[in-house]
Amino acid sequence: MEAILLIRHLMERYSEQKDLYIVFVDLKTTYDKVPRNVMWWGLEKNKVPTKYITLIKDIYKDVMTFV
């Protein structure tokens, strides 16, 4: 809940100045739920700048999870 309030504050503060992109990564449930190529497609479809998509891809690069 605290994170949501922080994001709302950031969005209000910067809404007049420039675009604001926010990514939530829930490490408990993210893996194996959405194929990565679908995530990249969704980001591109929503016109997220390439530099941010590349940054997010770097987070997932060489990541392995075990359950």
TrEMBL record:
It comes from the Eukaryota. This is Reverse transcriptase domain-containing protein. It comes from Zea mays (Maize).
